[in-house]
Structure formats: structure tokens, C-alpha cells
Amino acid sequence: MTEQLNNQSSRPYxxxxxxxxxxxxxxxxxxxxxxxxxxxxxxVLQWLVLGLRHRSFTLPLLxxxxxxxxxxxGVGKSELLAQATGHCDAAVLSWMKVNRTGAPIEHxxxxxxxQMQQRGLAFPLVGKPDIGCRGAGVKLLHNQQQLRDxxxxxxxxxxxxxxxxxxxxxxxxxxxxxxxxxxxGEIISLALKYTPYVVGDxxxxxxxxxxxxxxxxxxxxxxxxxxxxKLEQVIEEGSPYKLVFAASHCRxxxxxxxxxxxxxxxxxxxxxxxADLPExxxxxxxxxxxxIDHLQQGKNLEIVEINSASSESLHIWDRKTxxxxxxxxxxxxxxxxxxxxxxxxxxxxxxPKFKELLVRWKHERELTACYPETD
Length: 375
Hints:
A hairpin with an 8-residue loop joins strand 5 and strand 6 (about 185-195). The chain folds into two domains: about 1-30 and about 195-245, no CATH class; about 35-195 and about 255-370, D-amino Acid Aminotransferase, Chain A, domain 1. It is globular, with a radius of gyration of 21 Å. The protein is of the alpha+beta class. The strands form three sheets. The protein has a five-stranded antiparallel beta sheet with strand order 9-6-5-10-11. The chain has helices at about 1-5, 35-40, 40-55, 75-80, 85-90, 105-120, 145-150, 205-210, 220-225, 265-275, 290-295, 325-345, 355-370, and strands at about 95-100, 125-130, 140, 160-165, 170-175, 185-195, 195-200, 240, 255, 280-290, 300-305. The relative contact order is 0.20.
């Protein structure tokens, strides 16, 4: 850590276990923070063409047939994780689902404390929506009061998950695809997920450090509001300050293409875990690891989350990924969803009605508007 801080001028501080982060040159790609609808215009057009060809516009929602809508939208994270067995279940960080009831919030939090003890969960832990995406509402909870405040934001009859805090800080997004007629799948994308930091100089406030940082200064709208109570605080010299906890791209995390780091050992480890998740053929795991060697060896991996049909190959958000390459990757993913859906339709599964997609999408949007601000 000391060496990293001493080299701050040339190498930004990174979480333990992550390789050095090159920030020379441009800080983001020109399309990296476009509105989602703009990035996905080619995907929508392709979807329409493939839907006509396959005689079904909801065929991709069969890609993971044990999961409603293949997990595209409005499906609880717990519904997928509850299906995990064996190696997959062992790798997923311990979690529990919490339903927001109409009981007084104080009484519910007291009951939760007992349930947490029974499940071996203790503060600090992570609270996040059961239904949600793109890091919405993720909170690092240090005590009972923070748990109370977090739960109080959830509407009655909604749900959140409480999850053990990972042992490691280093994180990667691992995208996996397996065709139903094949015994093994493959990793089609690997990206390193960097948590952005600023490092104190003993004189500047947090706000000044953000404004002086080449990348953070361009994304102030993502950082300033969530650190409102700390903006005028002077950060101690040499002290790294984490700007993002939930390593989601739209929340300001930094992604780097790591496809060159994919190894047979990592591919085998992922296949072993995914074999213990029934009928799961398409999705991305967010994985914590000790260091790059352990990641490439597929050892001691901790699964934070498994994202399904709406997942993205995160290497497309590397600042150096060309626009056409990013579009090719997205189009390949959605073409693959149609192929998987078609294969599962031949196995007897029926595509869902479009109405179900709309209902679940609307429900997720309504819930997301209520969640607390992401850490």
C-alpha cells in the first residue's frame, strides 16, 4: 500500500489484489456514459429482425428456463441464488432475503438481528435490493441504525438482501455462456472492476480532490451527491478515500478489458460452479478474488452476484474499447440469447407472454425509485 501511495502521481491507488491502473491518456471512451437507450438502438433493431426470423419476440427470455424471463427484468436475485447447489452455493457469499413487512420498523430490525445471528451474518454487511440492477440501492451497513435506515426506504411487501461482506476487495466481471446441448460452457468476457479513489494531501477537501482528479472531475455528478456530508472534510495526507462501494459502471466504477487473463484453469473453475446452477446458460458473475494469480487459477473465488439475461460483457466499458467492438459484443450477446431460447424451445419450454415482461419491468422501475442512494 505504501508503495502504491508513494507512486500516486504515476499510478493511482487501487484496491489490494488489483494490478496497477493505467490512467494515462483519455479517461473515458466517447460513448461510455451515453444514455442506455442510445447504446442499445442497434440491439433493439437486431431483436426485431431475429424475432421475426424465429417467430417469437420473447424467445430470449427462455435462455435460462428455470428463471422467470431468464432473469431479464423484475426477477429477484434471491430466486436465482436459491437454486445454487454444491460448488456454486459454496462460492456465493452468505446471504438472506428480508421482506419489508408492515410491522414497526424497530420490531423488524430486532427480529432481523436474531435471524442474522442464526445465519452467521454480522456487521459490516451489504444491503441491496432483491429486485434491481446496475447497482441501484446497494449499501454498506456498519450497524443496526444503518440497517434500520436502509430498510425504512423499502416499500411494504418489497424485499432486500443482506449479504456477507467479501473477504477480498479485488473484483472482476466474468461472463459465461453454455449451450444446452453441450456439457461445458466458456467465459466470453472478463473485465476487472476498479473502485475509484482519491488520495488526500492534508490540505485539500474531498470536493477539491474530486475536482482535481482527471477522471473524477468529469463524473462529479456521480460522486458529489453520495459524499455530500464529507465534501468539506480535509482528507489526511496519503490517505486513500473510496468514491464508490458498489462497483457498477453507471455508478462511476472503472472497468478494464481483461480477456487476456482468461485461463483454462479459470474456465474450468467457472464451469464447475455453473454446473451446480440448474439450467443456467447465460449470465455474468461478479467475483471477488485475492489477487490476479488466484483469479487465473480459479482459486478461492467469492461470488457476490450472478446477473442473468440483461447482463453485459463489461470489457465493452474499457475506455480503449472501440465503439464498433462494443456494438459487436452486444449484438453477439443478444444473438446468443435468441440461440439459447430457440434451443430451449425445442426442449419443450414455451416463450413467456410479452405482457409479463412489461408488468415486471414496470414493477422494477417503481421499486427502484424508492431505494436509498447507492454507496
